[in-house]
Amino acid sequence: MTNSPIVNPSNVGLNTNTNTNTNTNTSADSAKSLPITTIDVIPESLANYAVIHQQAVQWGEMDAFNHLNNVVYYRYAESARITYLQTLGMFDGSMITMLAQSSCQYLRPVTYPDTLLLGVRCQRLGNTSIVIEYAYYSCEQQVIVANAEAVIVRLDSSGSKKLPWTAAERQRLLALEQDFGHTPQV
Fold first, then answer.
1. Per the omega criterion (within 30 degrees of 0), is the bond before 113 cis?
2. Mind listing the pLDDT tens digit for each residue in 19-51?
3. How far apart are CA 169 and CA 91, in angstroms?
4. What pTM was computed for the model?
5. Would you tell me how many other CB atoms lie within 10 Å of the CB of residue 128?
6. Does 180 score more than 60 pLDDT?
7. 3-7, 28-32, 151-155: which has the highest mean pLDDT?
8. 96 Cβ contact list (under 8 Å, min separation 6)
9. Which of 50, 64, 129, 176 could pair with 180 as two cysteines, CB 3.0-4.6 Å apart?
10. Are 42 and 58 in contact (CB under 8 A)?
């Protein structure tokens, strides 16, 4: 199974059938894998998130305590962050960003099988940085199970000097957020 990023379709009019399980094997082995949940309705708690990243929980991501290992939340956040930047046209290879800080607050344990919906949005837009916030929604539990944030810094092409966001990038980001009823701090 693979994960499936989507832009919040509530205002965009996208097809929400995001099942990307491309396994076309018709053998008995294929019956063992669970499909990724498709999003028919965006949960109310994620309505103000412009980008929602769909992530299937894998059996091997659980730890000895029989719940999703804490490190996995950071990998999920990385994938969701890339989806957010791609949505803004800021992850096309022409820009270097660096993760400067990240944190996660675990609210409830997650176990296999489950699909998480990661709401992603800008909390604060600085001159050369962006604070991104995440809400992890469990489709199985029907509730937010974790919250996280990350600070991303934009760098020049050599990766040695901070580089300000352009006026066009700032405008795109703020417009996307406002389309979903969210206004980041600036």
1. yes
2. 333 323 333 333 333 333 456 789 999 999 999
3. 12
4. 0.81
5. 13
6. yes
7. 151-155
8. 154, 155, 156, 157, 159
9. 50
10. no
Q: How far is CA 81 from CA 50, 75, 84, 101, in A?
A: 12, 10, 5, 13
Alpha carbons 185 and 30: distance in angstroms, whole number: 47
Taking residues 98-110, report their average pLDDT.
97
* Residue with the two structure tokens 């396994």: 23
The pLDDT, as a whole number, for residue 94 is 76
Q: Is 94 exposed, middle or buried (0-12, 13-18, 19+ CB in 10 A)?
A: exposed
Cα–Cα distance, 40 to 16 (Å, whole number): 6
What 3 state SS string does the chain have?
CCCEEEECCCCCCCCCCCCCCCCCCCCHHHHHCCCCCCCCCCCHHHCCCCEEEEEECCHHHECCCCCECHHHHHHHHHHHHHHHHHHCCCCCCCCEEEEEEEEEEECCCCCCCCEEEEEEEEEEECCCEEEEEEEEEECCCCEEEEEEEEEEEEECCCCCCECCCCHHHHHHHHHHHHHCCCCCEC
